[in-house]
Amino acid sequence: MSISTPPATTARGGYGAVTEVPGLPDGFTDVFSDTYATVDGVRLHAVVGGEGPPLLLISGWPQFWYQWRLMMPALAEDFTVVAVDPRGCGLSDKPASGYDSATIARELHGFMAELGHERFAVVGHDIGMWTGYAMAADTPGPIERLAVIDARIPGIFPSPPLVGDRWTADFLWHFAFNRVRDVNERLVEGREDIYFGHQFASKSLTPDAIPAEAVAVYVRAVREPGALRATFENYRDIDLTMEQSKRRMAEKLSIPVLGIGGAASTGTGAEAQMREVADDVTGAVIADAAHFVPEEAPEALLAALAPFLAPYRASA
């Protein structure tokens, strides 16, 4: 895959303003705009638009709000969509520490409160699934419904063996690599297109399922000052996240939860994990998709989310 990165940005704190990124659906900027709020000294960014009850979208690794772009216009017909950049990615601040699930969950609760949303639903993909679960478990009151997509939550999902089957090794090797201190940054810096390009090519149904133009956007974002370090910090803090997840399992979630997986990725895995930690769980498997479901199969994902979110919309 040939990756040509977009030019440098003049935006504060990173790359990824709604007016900067290519490949948005027609009319996107007529509906959505950039929004900022500061929580406990950390400035967070989101792209917000639409009408209806609030719906928080939490991105995964190595992405930011842009991963939801193909779904956001349809969702905005029924919801006020808040596609957030958690700390460390996109246009949000990139502190030196604090990338455990409890810290990020607390910040996103604070962010939604700053935007005036007392009650909301959550959809989280990849490490956004870690955060969505943490938000619902740590501060359950504001969250009406939780949908999680194609990830394995540290502390809930058993850690695979160091040397296991080939598929698992290829799918999860980045966990160990990303957790290393310093040397991984030195190996990847200047080669972000190779490392992150490989992630998209190898974890999608086909190597070109995520277009080169979109991969270039993600590579450009992670080349911003502090972004490469920050993206690894999510994994370096996994020890804390695992401890937090294990404590959360003492009390199951009572809200409705939907676990979604790509058929060529974790499949029913998200549903199975959430059945360990929640009482009211349904599941969906998205055909013709691997890990990057929101971009590989946006229409199918919208179809899976619609009946799950309908009661929330109707009751708002």
TrEMBL record:
InterPro entries on file: AB_hydrolase_1, AB_hydrolase_fold, Epox_hydrolase-like
Top-level division of the source organism's lineage: Bacteria
GO molecular function: hydrolase activity
Domain AB hydrolase-1: 53-168
Pfam families xref list: Abhydrolase_1
Keywords: Hydrolase
Name of the protein in its database record: Alpha/beta fold hydrolase
